[in-house]
Amino acid sequence: MGLFAFSQFSLKIFLLHITLFSTLSFSGDPSIYQEIHVSYTTVSPLSVPQQVIAVNGKFPGPVINVTTNNNVVVNVFNQLDEELLITWPGVQMRRDSWQDGVLGTNCPIPPKWNWTYEFQVKDQIGSFFYFPSTNFQRSSGGFGPFVINNREVIPIPFAQPDGEIFIMIGDWYTQNHTALRTALDGGKDLGIPDGVLINGKGPYQYNDTLVPNKLPFETITVDPGKTYRIRVHNVGVSTSLNFRIQNHNLLLAETEGYYTTQANFTSFDIHAGQSYSFLLSTDQNASTDYYIVASARFVNESLWQKVTGVAVLHYTNSKGTVTGPLPPPPDDFYNKGASMNQARSIRQNTSASGARPNPQGSYRYGSINITDTYLLNVTAPVKINGTTRAAINGISFLKPDVPFLLADKHQLRGIYKLDFPSKPMNRTPVVDRSIINATYKGFIEIVFQNNDTTVQNFHLDGYSFFVVGMDYGDWTENSRNSYNKWDAISRSTTQVFPGGWTAILVSLDNVGSWNLRSENLDRWYLGQETYLRILNPEDSKDNDTGVPDNVLYCGPLKHLQKEQKSSASALGHSILFTLLLGVLCVIFTAS
Ligand SMILES: *[C@@H]1O[C@H](CO)[C@@H](O)[C@H](O)[C@H]1NC(C)=O
Ligand SMILES: *[C@@H]1O[C@H](CO)[C@@H](O)[C@H](O)[C@H]1NC(C)=O
Ligand SMILES: *[C@@H]1O[C@H](CO)[C@@H](O)[C@H](O)[C@H]1NC(C)=O
Ligand SMILES: *[C@@H]1O[C@H](CO)[C@@H](O)[C@H](O)[C@H]1NC(C)=O
Ligand SMILES: *[C@@H]1O[C@H](CO)[C@@H](O)[C@H](O)[C@H]1NC(C)=O
Ligand SMILES: *[C@@H]1O[C@H](CO)[C@@H](O)[C@H](O)[C@H]1NC(C)=O
Ligand SMILES: *[C@@H]1O[C@H](CO)[C@@H](O)[C@H](O)[C@H]1NC(C)=O
Ligand SMILES: *[C@@H]1O[C@H](CO)[C@@H](O)[C@H](O)[C@H]1NC(C)=O
Ligand SMILES: *[C@@H]1O[C@H](CO)[C@@H](O)[C@H](O)[C@H]1NC(C)=O
Ligand SMILES: *[C@@H]1O[C@H](CO)[C@@H](O)[C@H](O)[C@H]1NC(C)=O
Ligand SMILES: *[C@@H]1O[C@H](CO)[C@@H](O)[C@H](O)[C@H]1NC(C)=O
Ligand SMILES: *[C@@H]1O[C@H](CO)[C@@H](O)[C@H](O)[C@H]1NC(C)=O
Description:
Blueprint (H helix, E strand, L loop, with lengths): L1 H22 L7 E13 L6 E6 L8 E4 L3 E8 L7 E2 L26 E7 L5 E7 L11 E6 L13 E10 L4 H9 L9 E4 L20 E4 L4 E8 L6 E5 L4 E6 L2 E8 L2 E3 L4 E7 L8 E7 L4 H4 L3 E8 L22 H7 L27 E7 L3 E3 L2 E3 L5 E3 L6 H6 L20 E3 L3 E4 L3 E8 L5 E5 L4 E8 L17 E2 L1 E4 L3 E8 L4 E7 L2 H5 L3 E7 L31 H24 L1
Parallel strand pairs: 1-4, 3-8, 9-12, 11-19, 20-26, 23-24, 25-33
Antiparallel strand pairs: 1-2, 4-6, 5-7, 7-8, 9-10, 12-17, 13-16, 13-18, 14-15, 14-17, 18-19, 21-22, 26-31, 27-30, 27-32, 28-29, 28-31, 32-33
Helix pairs in contact: 1-7
Bound molecules: 2-acetamido-2-deoxy-beta-D-glucopyranose (NAG) (12 copies).
The site of one 2-acetamido-2-deoxy-beta-D-glucopyranose has 4 residues, from helix 5.
InterPro entries: Cu-oxidase-like_N (IPR011707), Cu-oxidase_2nd (IPR001117), Cu-oxidase_C (IPR011706), Cu-oxidase_fam (IPR045087), Cupredoxin (IPR008972)
Protein name: Monocopper oxidase-like protein SKS1
Membrane topology: Lipid-anchor; GPI-anchor
């Protein structure tokens, strides 16, 4: 009782702490401080009680809301029973892969420890989400939205929306991440997910047979006659989802940091790891509430019916609850290319300003010569030495045990190889730690050829890239004739359809070691990732650039790591500190 009262109190003070700090600005750009406590909590989104990963007690976690050029300081407290790293995909830390939060850039935060990330969101805007990159934890939660707002002086290419709505959709298993990991380690397929969650909640009971239990469902309340910006993220394991809102258009406006030409869709395919902003006009008569649906795509509908998320859009003047069938999914039988055509139709708004006042289309990527081509053959899982693994160009990545640039700094040898093949190797796949020796200031083409039978999604940390081409069949040099050289969308996660290819162009202007990976968690876990090592030859005499003071050591460098007091006592200090600040703040406001 007393403890409860205290924690309520300290929570308020904690909020004061954040507000107080976020209004302070140090030399140059303002800093935003945030503490995130990652812990288990028990919920029953699909009626089965299960341990999920909460952030500051919330599932999904809170939004991290920053503005272009802010310095972001996030103190992450690991209250799980296993190692943790939080990653910020799409956030392009300049020359700072030391903050990226994947095993090739950071040693994991041990249980009960905390570690502070510090990075600048330089020249960026957009909708992203953070999540735990280690141990398959994303399948149990730990994710939340990460928004980078335009600076006030830079107009957004649409009227200021009347409100913002965050929607996190994703396939969901009632088994936790440790159980799913065990299944993958045992060579099993994860099988059909148990459902789709929308903002951490199970489906509205739209059909008593398909949803036998009344579950807590997500309700999004809106006023009539307004325009909302909805930011939708597929945070799931691997299922491609079709997102739609009954009787409403989705006006596409932004994807992962770039404004798009605006086009209306009645439904939109959002693949694992992808983020989109839509503008939603609440222009209906509210005779009832409306369904919000996220349903599994490209699957046998009768087997996958339960893999459907259903939430409710409620107008404040609504005259009744939702009834009747869900709005139908796209019809692939009569329109086989629909999903790919939709993806190809996403175009960059070349005249809008992004993070800077100049138009997004002022960077003429289509006239820059390509310096290197990487043709990556993404293949279905196979057994390597008795274990199920997945490979790219015959290499299944061995999980790093020490960050690569840290290994360089300490002159460790044999930690990784720089020989990742730039073409498919028609040889028996191997497990290896082979990374791409990419050339600083190069302008490279990466072609993902998906030889697997499921939709794949590839993400590159530290960069955004132009998605210039996508088709079925095998990529050939002639495929370049079909590239979009003018208004291809720039983003950081792209789908690759099974039996097809996707081509991206990347300008390698960001020094570091950057993770290139499958966003399908199972394939990533089985080894479909590598890194691009991009060094500025002029930096080589000074490898220390950017190594943070609080760098953690692990693996072969573990002996360099000092003990940390458990985060429980660090938390104690933090509460004391915030109390003190709170008191000061109260005194200050009172006077
Ligand atoms: C995960 O599930 C397994 C098997 O059901 C259980 O033994 C384990 O305690 C669970 N772990 C967490 C962190 O919930
Ligand atoms: C994020 O911050 C911007 C301004 O800094 C503010 O206008 C907006 O309401 C905030 N959004 C959320 C969800 O906190
Ligand atoms: C852990 O948190 C405390 C504040 O609670 C902070 O002073 C300390 O720097 C943090 N440790 C690291 C390694 O970031
Ligand atoms: C509920 O779903 C079942 C199975 O798809 C279907 O047969 C039934 O007609 C649905 N019920 C209603 C009321 O729509
Ligand atoms: C999109 O649909 C809305 C109605 O929902 C309409 O007002 C708007 O003009 C349409 N925009 C475009 C670009 O088609
Ligand atoms: C509201 O819209 C629905 C669907 O567009 C229509 O069927 C219904 O008649 C309308 N109701 C009123 C009161 O206008
Ligand atoms: C690009 O390559 C072409 C032909 O190889 C060459 O003529 C041209 O000068 C190059 N352009 C630039 C900007 O390097
Ligand atoms: C910098 O890293 C290179 C390997 O990339 C290594 O050979 C060199 O010794 C390092 N220099 C210093 C000063 O650490
Ligand atoms: C990709 O690998 C598969 C399996 O080894 C092979 O059958 C296929 O020909 C390869 N595709 C390309 C484009 O090399
Ligand atoms: C299988 O394991 C052995 C012994 O660990 C190793 O030498 C060999 O390279 C491995 N083979 C592959 C294909 O990874
Ligand atoms: C990496 O590439 C650079 C040129 O960009 C080259 O000088 C260097 O030798 C390469 N390193 C290895 C190990 O291949
Ligand atoms: C994989 O590659 C082989 C050889 O080119 C081809 O026969 C097969 O159809 C491909 N499978 C897919 C799903 O692309």
